[in-house]
Amino acid sequence: MDFFEKLWSLLEYFILGLVQGITEPIPISSSGHLIIFRELFGIEAEGLSFEIFVNFASLLAVLVIYRKDIIRLIKNGYLYVFKKENAAKDDFRFIVYLVIATIPVGVVGVLFGDAIGEALSSTKVVGYTLLFTAVALWIIRNLRGRKNDGDISAKDAIIVGLAQTVAVTPGISRSGATIVGSMLVGMKQETALRFSFLLYIPVSLGTGLLEIPDLIQSPEFQTMLIPHIIAFITTFIASYFALKWFMGIMAKGNLKYFSYYCIVVGLLVIFFL
């Protein structure tokens, strides 16, 4: 591999990391955009394992941004279980509901995740699923829920969990699916956003811990260590700032712009890729 080939390889992984980082927190599907960019630029990477690797970088960004909420939930969960402090009950229930909402996608992912990913990982499918995402975002664009963290029920958690299973399909945003589900059951924007991204933690952590050892042991990873590190760092930084930006968008209720974006990109993909 000569100098320019090495340089292009580094640039490929930087681009993939940037795409993953920007698109993971916002409701436009990171997996779908990785498929689109690979098709456009002929970029190759380790498929699903690589996506899980960079997803782990996005997870770290989520952990940093929501660290205070995570620490509070862990602390209050402990206080309620072991100290029986009623003031911590709402946070304990919030944790329980996150666990409940994780179960559906865990079951679907284990049983059908690989099959769905292999069968539906074409650019045409991504185009149609982006249109599906656009419709879902358009439906909730003007919703203003009333439920805070302490008002969530087990039924709400199940509905959001079922919504998250739809995102196993490439082109359907995980954050978009969970935010749509959360707002349809009446959560406020801030609560919907927090529930969505705290729900991202067990899903991403579980898949990452299962798949990253296999990725690291593969010959391709060993020979492409530096490009993977570049993709990881790029994804982390891009995810951090994209999520911060998206939090401001959610506060202003401007989800319709993501619907417009998904319509435009979806149609372009269907007709030109």
TrEMBL record:
<keyword id="KW-0378">Hydrolase</keyword>
<dbReference type="InterPro" id="IPR003824">
    <property type="entry name" value="UppP"/>
</dbReference>
<feature type="transmembrane region" description="Helical">
    <location>
        <begin position="192"/>
        <end position="212"/>
    </location>
</feature>
<protein>
    <recommendedName>
        <fullName>Undecaprenyl-diphosphatase</fullName>
        <ecNumber>3.6.1.27</ecNumber>
    </recommendedName>
</protein>
<feature type="transmembrane region" description="Helical">
    <location>
        <begin position="48"/>
        <end position="66"/>
    </location>
</feature>
<keyword id="KW-0573">Peptidoglycan synthesis</keyword>
<dbReference type="Pfam" id="PF02673">
    <property type="entry name" value="BacA"/>
</dbReference>
<keyword id="KW-0472">Membrane</keyword>
<keyword id="KW-0812">Transmembrane</keyword>
<comment type="function">
    <text>Catalyzes the dephosphorylation of undecaprenyl diphosphate (UPP). Confers resistance to bacitracin.</text>
</comment>
<comment type="similarity">
    <text>Belongs to the UppP family.</text>
</comment>
<feature type="transmembrane region" description="Helical">
    <location>
        <begin position="125"/>
        <end position="143"/>
    </location>
</feature>
<feature type="transmembrane region" description="Helical">
    <location>
        <begin position="255"/>
        <end position="272"/>
    </location>
</feature>
<keyword id="KW-0046">Antibiotic resistance</keyword>
<keyword id="KW-0133">Cell shape</keyword>
<keyword id="KW-1133">Transmembrane helix</keyword>
<keyword id="KW-0961">Cell wall biogenesis/degradation</keyword>
<feature type="transmembrane region" description="Helical">
    <location>
        <begin position="224"/>
        <end position="243"/>
    </location>
</feature>
<feature type="transmembrane region" description="Helical">
    <location>
        <begin position="94"/>
        <end position="113"/>
    </location>
</feature>
<keyword id="KW-1003">Cell membrane</keyword>
